[in-house]
Amino acid sequence: MNSLAGRTAVITGAASGLGAAMATRFVAEGARVVATDIDRSGGEAIARELGEACTFVEHDVADEAAWQQVIATARDLGGFDMLVNNAGITIMGSIETLSLADWQKTMDVDLAGVFLGCKYGVAAMKETGGGSIVNISSAAGLRASADLAAYNSAKAAVTMLTQSVALHCGRAGYGIRCNSVHPGVIRTPILDKVMAQVEDGEAMMNGFVAQHPIGHIGATDDIVNMVLYLMSAEAKFATGAPFIVDGGLSL
Ligand SMILES: NC(=O)c1ccc[n+]([C@@H]2O[C@H](COP(=O)([O-])OP(=O)(O)OC[C@H]3O[C@@H](n4cnc5c(N)ncnc54)[C@H](O)[C@@H]3O)[C@@H](O)[C@H]2O)c1
Fold this sequence. Notes:
It is a single chain. The protein is α/β, with parallel strands linked by helices. The protein is about 45% helix and about 15% strand. The protein has a single domain, classed as NAD(P)-binding Rossmann-like Domain (Rossmann fold, 3-Layer(aba) Sandwich), CATH 3.40.50.720. The protein has helices spanning about 15-30, 40-50, 65-75, 100-125, 150-170, 190-195, 200-210, 220-230, and strands spanning about 10, 30-35, 55-60, 80-85, 130-135, 175-185, 240-245.
């Protein structure tokens, strides 16, 4: 369990769900983790649980100046070569019901946040011989839903942003790989937040299960294992690619 020994990761949205699961597993694998989130109490709780290998930084991914502080913290720890742009929100709404404010909030967090992470992550990693960036998109970045106009659009844009970053870094010879991961529905607190936006949350959950050809929704480990692979030397030829882990949802 020491596959990440000597290495440092920044993981955004690490106070909850997938980000917390990644931080926990990365530390178990020997990494130092800079866990960031806007949720200070949740982030501090994870950092306490994980001990000295985990540093929490309160951070809004849409805030450019805050990104500079996050990356500086990771560089100071040494061995910074892993970044997971994981923080995200889901605001439901169709083209008829979604407000411009909710569209912009989604774009700020789910897209501009990933752009800023890649921008400052690349700037730091290119100075120290490279690294691996994983952007958490979604099956919803590949397949549309009528009531996810903003989320679909932001997550699809993350897929293309990832490819642009990978091309740039490959051609520049930075040794930086950049890939996107596309989860199907995974049991995390984001589901409670989505179900709270509809009348019949239970019917929605049953609908989610039915949409996955494999017969069930996913667990955090299903995604953490893919991210770990993309951080490993075994993935040294993988860049600019969408890695789909969705029980067949996007088929
Ligand atoms: N759970 C799923 O079914 C699922 C499916 C596909 C993709 N995803 C994606 O996986 C990622 C993680 O989702 P999750 O399921 O763990 O959700 P979650 O709600 O449990 O965790 C998301 C975390 O992001 C944080 N966050 C929100 N806005 C932020 C901001 N502006 N700056 C920093 N942190 C912020 C939240 O405080 C929270 O801790 C998201 O990008 C989500 O879109 C989730």
